[in-house]
Amino acid sequence: MYDLIIIGGGPAGLTAATYALNKRLDTLLLSEDLGGKTAYGFDMKGYEGHEVIRGGELVEKFKRQLEYLQFAHQTDRVTKVVAEGKGFAVLTQGNKRYEAKAVIVATGALPKRLDVPGEKQLIGKGLSYSAISHAQLFIEREPAIVGSNKRALEAAAEMALIAKQVHLILPEAGESDSPLGKKLRANAKVKVYEAALQEVRGDQAVGSIVVGGKEIEVDGLFIEVGLNPGSKAVADLGITDASGRIVVNSKCATSCPGVFAAGDVTDVFIEQVLVAIGEGAKAALSAYEYLLNQ
């Protein structure tokens, strides 16, 4: 039985594994790959090769350490975590079963896609699912944002502070009648379209979008229609909220003793590599403290 099993190899999971190993915990990290969101860059017209993900170098160091310590990492997808006695059984897609006294879930969240023509081909080429990560590149430019939820409206508000013009596409009513929605409608720098996104166009990068049959030239596109947290494996532990995010306290502990979580899979709004790194470190130290008292 391991002291600690960490599920997920992104910034939070890699950091947690590094801290746990430094604490001399018998640790295993289970993930399909290493690096998570740091494996993806974001290019746009005029910023070829510009890397906007912060903390990538630090995560790369953690990744190399795990690759060197091969005994501490297994490539596999975790399908279920089961509470058994004073520990946990972790089951994988490869029909493996591992046991641990404590678990850290750092499986992140995947953006919801619209599956419109051109979307898949232009991901990372002016098309992003995270305005909070890439908004700073659009000073005096014209980005488009798709989404009717609070997340999309907040992204539009942030963009309006720096962009020349913001094109806000509202595919449904959503939060558009909220105080923030009304404020955006009154902003001269925000042009609102109450229609669905039909197509994304561009050769090497996003150049235009089609909304309501009309082509609109833009410098980039943000699809902000929500995230799907990777919490399915722990669904039966009763530690998620209505949206599937894992609920944690200030120490990254869940309501299930011995289970901790960090990163975008939690109800802590992150989407920043450096924040995920900090949460991963916190989760590992909390797990270490928990194990000391067992």
What does this structure look like?
With 294 residues, this protein is α/β, with parallel strands linked by helices. It has two domains: 2-110 and 227-292, 3-Layer(bba) Sandwich (FAD/NAD(P)-binding domain); 113-223, 3-Layer(bba) Sandwich (FAD/NAD(P)-binding domain). 23% of the residues lie in helices and 26% in strands. It has six helices and 17 strands. It has helices at residues 11-22, 56-68, 131-134, 150-160, 179-185, 273-292, and strands at residues 2-7, 27-31, 73-75, 78-84, 87-92, 97-105, 109-111, 127-128, 143-146, 166-169, 190-193, 197-201, 208-211, 214-217, 220-223, 227-229, 259-261. Strands 1, 2, 3, 4, 5, 6 and 17 form a seven-stranded mixed sheet that branches. Helix 1 (11-22) packs across helix 2 and helix 1 (11-22) packs parallel to helix 6 (273-292). The longest helix has 20 residues, at 273-292. The chain starts with a strand and ends with a helix.
Condensed summary:
The protein has helices at 11-22, 56-68, 131-134, 150-160, 179-185, 273-292, and strands spanning 2-7, 27-31, 73-75, 78-84, 87-92, 97-105, 109-111, 127-128, 143-146, 166-169, 190-193, 197-201, 208-211, 214-217, 220-223, 227-229, 259-261. It is α/β, with parallel strands linked by helices and 294 residues long.
Topology:
Elements: E1 2-7, H1 11-22, E2 27-31, H2 56-68, E3 73-75, E4 78-84, E5 87-92, E6 97-105, E7 109-111, E8 127-128, H3 131-134, E9 143-146, H4 150-160, E10 166-169, H5 179-185, E11 190-193, E12 197-201, E13 208-211, E14 214-217, E15 220-223, E16 227-229, E17 259-261, H6 273-292
